[in-house]
Batch of 3 targets.
Target 1
Amino acid sequence: MNVGEILEESVARFGEKVAVVFENEKVTFPQLDRLVNNLSTGLIKEGVNKGDCVATFLPDSMEFALSYFAILKIGAIHAPLDIRLKEDEVKLILDDARPVIIITTGQFQDMFLAMRAEIPVMNRVIVVGKEVREGCVSFDEIKSRSSPRVVPAEVEDDDVALYIYTSGTTAKPKGVMVTFGNLDWFPRDMHAFWNTTENDVYMIALPASHISGPIVFNQTVAMGIASVILGTFSPRKWLESIEKNHVTATQLVPPMANALIQLGEFEKYNLSSLRGVALMGAYSAPGLVKEIGQKLGLRRCCQGYGLTETSPMITFEPLDSNAPFGNIGKPLPGRETKIVDEDGDEVSVGKIGEIVTRGPHIMKGYHNDPEATREKIRNGWLHTGDLAKRDEEGYFYIVGRKQDRINVGGLMVYVSEVEDVLREHPKIVEVAVMSAPDPKRGEKVRAIVVLKDGIEATEDEIIVYCRERMANYKVPREVEFRESLPKTRTGKIARAELVKNSY
């Protein structure tokens, strides 16, 4: 079902109820519908058709929410880019997504105007803000123009709604194709596990450009829930927003929870409205889960697990859970999820295997990458690459990662993308990137490098080089220099031996 239809139905059901809040701006359901309609009309006039891609490079904001709803209403595909990406990373993604329009802020309009020569299909840059360059279109003017009603495009469950890019500096970034059908499932999931009602207020505290943003927007609009967009996170801002907006449910990842505990100002704020917090992202130490729940005055924080490719949740912990801290919940209803061995057979209680899942929550595939899609989805089962075990009550527990990826505070970093950047350094001959434990972010990026003969370099030099070419969360926090890297008999880097000898 098109989110534009859902929004129109919610206007009839919930009337003048507040739909979206950002900072001091509140938009009711009728206002949201009108603004989205105006923006949809503007996109159509600029040549956007059903099935076209429209990219956004925006901070978490009201403009992001309006763009999301407007793009999907006309049946186009939204490609939200993380505002922290560097120019080279953005180019790689746009070259794959081929958007006909990019929506951004005035700060970045020159960058995208320059890119138009390299991406001919991108015929317009729509700019949020007062300073709009010649050749660009004003977002504010479009959204304020009164327009006749745009009929939501007819879409099938299998039609693509989103390209969510899970990496940005590899030779071939992976764009997860999330369908309209995928988006329909999350509201049912959360209602089943959290007993949500139209009286709830949900705060979007994780980046809206990732899968969590669009999914939560769909959930809140469908259920008449007010969604509060936090914007850039700070622990004090998070607490202030809960008190100010009477937030009942929200999200955290381990670094945010640690920052809140370090701030230690819980007693200064009225957090009595809060009844549920989902602790997502990286593995969370049981002690952290317990402490942050107690500090927030909750019975417990609930943990969950999922991937962008599963839009996003696979397992979730119910509010009334009595399971040991550190679990990632139980498989959500309406899908199949199990833990299997190397032969694909389900393992017994307490045994370790890979989490696999299938059902209506599974992505359509990776954009322009059928080989990677076939590797990820085999015989209808999506292979997560994550290792886990389950207890007798059916709760899952993550024990490790099969794939070479690093979860930095809820943001996924692929080993290969960091290694590709480091291999371009003129002083480096070999490199291996791995995860290292981090007390605040769960994991951090660690690089082991071999320099060319007779060459010297410093750790700071390597880190600065990476910081200029990658989003900050992907940058190695530790760099170790070695004379050589261990190899297998076939000449590949022996990563297991490397990890064993690193600690």
Target 2
Amino acid sequence: MLGLAAAAVIAAMGATPVAGGEPPAASAPAQPRPTVVLEWEAPAGCPERAQVQGWLDRALADSAADPAGMRARAMVRAADDGSGLVLELVLERPGAPVGRRTMQAGDCHELAKAAVLIVALAEDPEAEVDEPIEPTVPEQPEPPEPVEPEPPEPSEPTVPEQPEPALAESPTPTDTAPEPAPSPERRPQIEAGLRAQAAAGISVLPSTTAVVSLVGALWGPHWRAELGASYWTPVTSRPDGISGGRIEQWTLDARGCGLLRPGPLELPLCAGLDVGAVHGRGRGVTEPRRVASLRLAAAAGPALLWRPTRLHRRLGLWLGADLLVALVRARFRATPAAPGLVYHTPPVGARVGAGIELRFR
């Protein structure tokens, strides 16, 4: 009997809650994780929205990040140039700037996986997503601003590299640059000119006489060559005051010069020969004679040439002087039997003159 009573008491105690104890709480059902809402528009042949949403949910299944109302809109369309498909992706989150991405690929599945990758990484940079085939990114005038969500912890997450948009090709330069200013006119290395000259002949004929010359010239930067013809006007000589003669001469004048250029001036230093003839005719006698003798003289002397720029340097003013040394000295008598000479070429003479020179182009 005691054994039965003890068993009943023990059974009653096991069914009665212990004083001060609480009954065990029933387990609550698990709440579904919030997810990112994905709006998907794509042509036929592309993955359906449910399939793409499933990829996104699986990518974020183990993520602890809060989507906080994040929405994604993805639209796939044919490229304008017919080269493939274009994905336009817009990411929106309350209180954050709108992110936009545009990508191009030949396969719609590639674009779908790329959209899943971008949305998942924008939600949780540490999300584990199978690496998709990266589509090519068309040229954009400006790269879009990526959405940078705040991480749940202050630790610095490792963000995988994102496909960067290709830089826009710089436009091909056109020939719109202004033409360079024309270079100043280059003077030829060898120039030519013609000079008309008047001079005074001193101590060459019996007295000072006028000399007219026409000279052609060639010159370079540091040299000058001339060939001219000169006429020495007639001079009458009467040594005894009664009989005498009329003396004149012409010459061919050859010159070679070194050319200095002090500033705007030209300074030829010349040497050469005068070759020609001295003509004499008797005066004041019954039987005047007419004779011609050789004229040969060495010449040397400086000159000065100035070409005004206002005349485009085509005309120049010439000043020159020559020292003449007779190499052949002519003699002239009024008659063959005359005792005295009417003319005998002086050993040294000079010529001083001025002229105008025309430079040919």
Target 3
Amino acid sequence: MDSKCVFCKAFQMCVFVSRRVVGPAVTFKVSRNSQNVSTADVANVAGRSSSIEKCCELFCVFGGQQGSQIKQIPTKYSQGESTKFLVLTVVSILCIVGVLLASTVVYCLRHRSHHKLKEKLTNLGTDSGGDATATYQELCRQRMSVKPSVDRPEPISSRINSVSSQFSDGGPAISPSGRGSISSWSEEPAHSNMDISTGHMILSYMEDHLKNKDRLAKEWEALCAYQAEPNATTTGLKNGNAKKNRSTAVVAYDHSRITLKVENSQGNSDYINASPVMDHDPRNPAYIATQGPLPSTVADFWQMVWENGCVVIVMLTPLVENGVKQCYHYWPDEGSNLYHIYEVNLVSEHIWCDDFLVRSFYLKNMQTNETRTVTQFHFLTWLNQNVPETSRTLLDFRRKVNKCYRGRSCPIIVHCSDGAGRTGTYILIDMVLNRMAKGAKEIDIAATLEHLRDQRPGMVQTKDQFEFALTTVAEEVNVILKALPQ
């Protein structure tokens, strides 16, 4: 019997009783009937349920004998709705996963940033070293933003060129070193209040000296004959202190030496071969001239840096020259080193050009847990008893040092090997140019050198170094005069 006919006939004769609608389905019982439609007939038709499902859009389930219970609630079958539900479920899961990942990334970044800030504040505390850090970072950003110029540097005026070949630097640009350095660059001098008439007077003075070699030689002879008074070096030559000197020819004067706090000293001594160098204010030294540290005096050196509040170190010597040690390696190549109670941590090292590089340190006092930032400017190509190849390179170096130091009142530490020849030459140049920048009406370079030698013996050791100082000052004065409104 056709399944459709069975159902239609049964409905007409009211064979199905107890009919109920359950969701989209109809349930019923088969009663006795004259057509002898039995439960078996219904079951037989249910076995061919696919045609019924297609015709009536019902999902057919099996029933039992009269009085049995349906064990599964029939539902309407829809392939389209099932697919939509699956797609929505997958999309929802993906959205939830995306939100969780984004939240995790944001949390990690904020946590890392907060941790770094907390660590930095913990290290620096309220010390003024933070200013040095900001200055150093700004210095690095400005340096890296400078593109090497393809133009040859502008030649100095013919008036100065006729005097000395060192007044121009028209040679080929210095090639980058194997360590990934950046070629040399120039920077305009800082704003100067130099008196124009004084500047021209200085240029005339330099021209006369550099043209007249005999006059320069006589002036140098007079400087060599100069004797400082007082000049006792008793403290530095004592048995316990003599071993702390690189050379007995350059020892700090008794009346003009840096003294360390004995209670913080590694050797229970207040001696270090270092001299305060005053300019116009005897209460506040502008520089500390010192020798390159020895292995036994490294802790004393960092103690001096700490106790004098220094934030800038100018190093004018390579560590080794022609197989001879010029200075002990007093800083870590990486990480940190502990020197007595002072921990030195290398923060960064930048090779600015072939001639010099810049290092930044965190200096921590392990007794007080205070931390400061110290910047070291290391000039690499100035050999002992000699002069740099060009004035321009040293002037570029000096501008960078002073840009980092600007606005501070602490002394600049300057050292070479013995703390006299190259150290004295650099301080002489810097002191004269600073005086001129402040508007000084009279400048006597020879008298300024005598003033330096009153405070430390042997400052500027050769005639070539003195002549180089004159040439360098003249070159910078010429550049400043060009920049001034005419």
